[in-house]
């Protein structure tokens, strides 16, 4: 009796939990993906958690779905944590709805995944629109025989380290060897006056001659980089330095296939499958303008059918699955360039650009342009994704908001997706942001928010009891503008009112405490998969090619010490290059973070101290940010 009773009780508890989760899944789909579910039965179900982005492959999901009836189509969009299934009849989809909802399946890496199904009227899936390979790109399948592949792989002596002929390095995400010329990751260039003795390995010679004769390549390369990628390894998105190498760059994939992502500066991404024993040839636009990189992950999204071997991955969403990565070794051959590059892409050409990455703006107009290009446009583009990865409010900000007296009027300047607007229901909170898309998300969530610039907030002076500015002010390009932003915040405060300001700190670790932002990177497999598939690779800025205006890759920072916050005095920054923030988690774009507060939270005060009408109540380091609470006198 007792036992029964208890299990009944448990059951209803589980059921309640399940219902809550299902409703949550429905909301998430609507809010972040714009997918509308319906409460009546249709032939089509959206399967939340049953997606490639969640580590669920077609081979795992399809048999489960088939148990409930005849599956007409299973659409698995790349990198998404959901999929769509269409059954032949509504009866069958109803059966699936009832029997699979809340059921667990085991994902590709053994993780348990609970499915949540909801009916939809139609399949909503935004085609990327770009169905062609980048211009100038070619993938030649089966360019060498399995015997040659074996021979090439066996010829590499990884245990020897630096040999007479080669320079070997262990990079963060892969092993490399260089022949012909050493590639310097600090400069993304080779020392043209210092060729390595011995040239390219002899074994490559006949192969290269053959490719020349058969017309796959036009120039004989004189530099070889061998990379070895284990599953989970990758290479950051980059463009090979124009001035370093000639037009034609070729890469032979050995040992295993891999997906390489090509990105255009307009945001288009084309994932390209490089099968084992294939040759990738990059010329023209694909070599000069598009970045290429390999996302560090253990599975790739690939076409399921055998007919799609090389080429674009997302050409058929109804045919996607996951493929486990193996150890891939690539032979990348390049020809060192002896004269400056005169390509047709001056914006990304180091030979044709005198000043490399953006310099510190000298006028307000320049500053505005810079912010427009590197901050506002980026946020506008990433709004949806940005929002879907930023749910969790930071505790100390919550604490600040909860401590305010009930009835307080509070402005959140740069409110993003509004994650702080609903924290304390006793407050009257209003948010603003430069990004229309983020403000739209706030409004969907029934928050008061409007679009405006943080330098000119259309709110009456002294009308707020408190203000918060979370991770906003560091986006302004000059010290003057940051001061104006703080001053504007203070203007809104009534005397005695408090402001909480967070600015992103360059060092994401302080007193040995990693920010949650960084720790958040170490996620469960499924989630990490989803995130890293979008992100350009983190953590190794030295390998980046600075490419202005080109999203998806990061710039190295030549002189970081120049960016210490210096109050209003920015004159000494002239001619300095600006660091561009590489994404730490899920952005696929770079954000401009032009200041650096070195090691000492007191420096956060400098900007604030230029204002006479405030007192600083508290400064601290939290979540990778320097923080200050100030009070208007
Ligand atoms: Zn060029």
Automatic annotation (TrEMBL):
Reactions catalysed, as given in the entry: 5-(carboxymethyl)uridine(34) in tRNA + S-adenosyl-L-methionine = 5-(2-methoxy-2-oxoethyl)uridine(34) in tRNA + S-adenosyl-L-homocysteine
Region of interest: Disordered: 516-551
EC number(s) recorded for this UniProt protein: 2.1.1.229
GO BP terms in the entry: DNA damage response; tRNA methylation; tRNA wobble uridine modification
Major localisation: cytoplasm
Leading EC class: transferase
Bias type Polar residues, positions: 533-551
GO CC annotation, single: nucleoplasm
GO molecular function, one term: 2-oxoglutarate-dependent dioxygenase activity
Cofactor(s) essential for the protein: Fe(2+)
Annotated compartments: Cytoplasm; Nucleus
Pfam families assigned: 2OG-FeII_Oxy_2, ALKBH8_N, Methyltransf_11, RRM_1
Assigned keywords, A-Z: Cytoplasm, Iron, Metal-binding, Methyltransferase, Multifunctional enzyme, Nucleus, RNA-binding, S-adenosyl-L-methionine, Transferase, Zinc
All copies of domain Fe2OG dioxygenase, residue ranges: 220-337
Record family assignment: Belongs to the alkB family.
Subunit and partners: Interacts with TRMT112.
Its biological purpose: Catalyzes the methylation of 5-carboxymethyl uridine to 5-methylcarboxymethyl uridine at the wobble position of the anticodon loop in tRNA via its methyltransferase domain. Catalyzes the last step in the formation of 5-methylcarboxymethyl uridine at the wobble position of the anticodon loop in target tRNA. Has a preference for tRNA(Arg) and tRNA(Glu), and does not bind tRNA(Lys).
Protein name as annotated: tRNA (carboxymethyluridine(34)-5-O)-methyltransferase ALKBH8
Organism: Loxodonta africana
Organism placement in taxonomy: Eukaryota, Metazoa, Chordata, Craniata, Vertebrata
